[in-house]
Amino acid sequence: MLRVENLSKEFRNSRGRQRNVVKAVSNLSFQCQPGEIYGLLGPNGAGKTTTLRCLSTLIKPTSGNVWIDQYNVLEHGQIFRSKIGFLTSDMKLDGYFTPDYMMNWFGQLNKMEDCRIEQQKEKLFNDLQMTDFIHKKIDQLSTGMKQKTAVAISLIHDPEVIIFDEPTSGLDVITSKAVTDFLVSRADSGKIVIISTHNMTIAEKLCHRFGILVDGELKEEGTLSDIIEGSSWDNLEDVFFSYILPGGNHV
Ligand SMILES: Nc1ncnc2c1ncn2[C@@H]1O[C@H](COP(=O)(O)OP(=O)(O)OP(=O)(O)O)[C@@H](O)[C@H]1O
Ligand SMILES: [Mg+2]
User: Fold this and answer.
1) Which residues lie closer than 8 Å to 21 by C-beta, 6 or more apart?
2) Residue 199 CA: which ligand is closest?
């Protein structure tokens, strides 16, 4: 199980004598079980990426903690990292190399044995329908092909927890479906999947539970029916808008 406990993150910027504190995430708590897909929703600047970066050990929380079973992000960083696969739009792939080469490289970085790397490559390349382009240079790949490559690389070590920040952003419907079907298959095999997305249709179809984050605070949490029951709306998008639009009944 993954447990986020009272997570807060502040960024302190100083320009000259001026000090500016941005409260990106405030006192956030939620849990995810194996087999579950959790969707973090929120407008631009809500704190989704910051939360996912804290969960992925890339940045340290200002306070609070994150647990995977008995391991926490503050005390067991290395073990914690080995249990997580993180995909972010910031991931830059070197255009000179091929997906196949990159997978070998990241597999070795994760100290995996060669035969295990080969097994994982075969599985991920097949599941993500990548076999046609694994020996092409990344520079020559389309956006969707690059995204599939980034997905495969982030999961080479077969992590228990899959954390994807906007995994379908910029993808056509076919590639987007390939990625979301892939996430469903991973959850069905017992992984914990956490995604952020702006796409309510994908969120509704894909996620078992949701958190709606606004200004770094969790405003709503639960299954689709939990969220709709407590509101005067009958779909996720309208509940979402009620939190973020001026005049919405939650604002
Ligand atoms: N490194 C940083 N230094 C200072 N402020 C930051 C930093 N990273 C994020 N922030 C601020 O934290 C807040 C939350 O940003 P974050 O990127 O987590 O939002 P988001 O929900 O992922 O938004 P989007 O939907 O646009 O990706 C914003 O006000 C942002 O400006
Ligand atoms: Mg973001």
Assistant:
1) 10, 11, 12, 13
2) 1
Give CATH for domain 1-83+161-172+195-246: 3.40.50.300
**pLDDT tens-digit profile of 92-134?**
899 999 999 999 999 999 999 999 999 999 999 999 999 999 9
Query: Tokens 């690059």 identify what position?
Result: 146
Residues with CB under 6 A from ligand 1: 11, 13, 22, 24, 42, 44-50
Domain boundaries, the chain: 1-83+161-172+195-246
Q: Are 125 and 74 in contact (CB under 8 A)?
A: no
Give the separation between CA 95 and CA 106, rounded to whole angstroms.
15
CA of 22, nearest ligand number: 1
Q: Strand, coil or helix: what is 238?
A: helix
pLDDT tens readout for residues 20-32: 899 999 999 999 9
Which two structure tokens, joined as six digits, stand for 43? 């407008």
Q: In what side-by-side order are the strands of the sheet with 18-32?
A: 18-32, 2-15, 63-68, 71-72
Which of the 8 DSSP states describes residue 232?
S
The closest of 71, 53, 42 to 7, measured between CA atoms, is 53
pLDDT tens for each residue of 2-11: 999 999 999 9
Q: pTM for this structure?
A: 0.94
